[in-house]
Specification:
- The protein is α/β, with parallel strands linked by helices.
- It has two domains: about 15-105 and about 115-255, Aspartate Aminotransferase, domain 2, CATH 3.40.640; about 260-375, Aspartate Aminotransferase, domain 1.
- Helix content is about 40%, strand content about 15%.
- It is built from eleven helices and twelve strands.
- The protein has helices spanning about 10-30, 40-55, 65-75, 90-100, 120-130, 150-160, 215-225, 245-275, 305-315, 345-350, 365-375, and strands at about 55-60, 80-85, 105, 135-140, 165-170, 175, 180, 190, 205-210, 290, 295-300, 355.
- The strands form three sheets. It has a seven-stranded mixed β-sheet with strand order 1-9-8-5-4-2-3, with helices on both faces. A three-stranded antiparallel β-sheet has the order 7-6-10, with no helix packed on it. The chain has a two-stranded antiparallel ribbon with strand order 11-12.
- Helix 6 (about 150-160) links the parallel strand 4 and strand 5.
- Pyridoxal-5'-phosphate (PLP) binds near residues 171 and 206.
Length: about 375
Amino acid sequence: MSDPKPMAFVDLKKQYEFLREDLDKRISQAVRHFSFIQGPEVRELEEKLAKFTDLQDCVTCANGTDALTLPLIAWEVKAGDAVFVPAFTFIATAEVVALRGATPVFVDVDEATFNMDPIDLERKIKKVLAEGQLKPKAIITVDLFGLPADFWTISHIALRYNLYILEDAAQAFGGEINGQKACNFGHAGATSFFPAKPLGCYGDGGAVLMSDPYLAKVVRSLRVHGAGAEKYLHERVGLNSRLDTIQAAILLGKFAALPEELDKRETVANWYRQKLKRVAWHPIVPEGFRSAYAQYTIRIRADFRATLMEELKKRGIPTMIYYPRPLHLQPAFAGLGGRVGDCPTAERLCDEVLSLPFHPYLTEEDVDRVCSALSELI
Ligand SMILES: *Cc1c(COP(=O)(O)O)cnc(C)c1O
């Protein structure tokens, strides 16, 4: 076989080519008005994102991790509190809990959707209550790879045990359940504008979305050193976690393209689904749900995955493992005493998942190339 040109896993260059004229204009405007900190683009973006998700308030911040942190500070999550998080996600989801001094309690995930398993959630809540050491305080649900979690079931559990829900929608901006947008399913939603996310900027960025005016006021204050009504009056201990004006300008351009990109993501996902129908296990999107498809992740026999990745790489096809290790078995959380077998589905997924090249500008030809290589190898 001839040396094929390597493909991109996420092709931000190609996206830029499509949006160049608009983005360049917005960036140069933002530079020329010199309001680098909290400029007018930041406010405009916040208004647009709140409207899009049908929430009252959007507070942008420095990154998605801070977007998770800010509501936890506002809710006074602290040492002695238990916060329930899925075991199969990016480390940030649990890290923010540990940094507040609280204890992340890892919950297994559902085999079909990769999202938090409500049955194991309730089991873990009951276990914490029975042990009597920690006070259950909040649940952080993750909309993994863009698919919203099972919010109906989880909301009932949260009500029964009087827990906050923080929705980690870092990967899911644009996802939906029956027309209701991701970020809108908990007491607060957090998203990330890391470049490779469905709505990404050209650096770091994030946002908290909510319809609770008190929470919004506190989060807005926490974002800038606990600011009060007057300059140099500080009501609380906060952070410096602002979104740059230039990043907001870029996001306004990307946001305008988002609806079309979300449709394209769905088209690409359907090509993969169709063309690999008999070759691999596919992500399940339950009735009424819409995924923002941050990733397209299939499952491969554990003992064959490394070989497959190697062979695909030789053919110029990059693949990634999101995520190779469940959180309860991360060295960072070794002190919590997590053991193999605590979250068996998460553990199995870590051995089997494989994410394929995915972005809204993939052509059917590109997808064919990946699928024929996979069909040949599997
Ligand atoms: C990316 C991501 C985050 C963190 O976002 P940053 O902007 O990188 O801080 C949190 N949770 C999940 C699930 C993510 O994928």
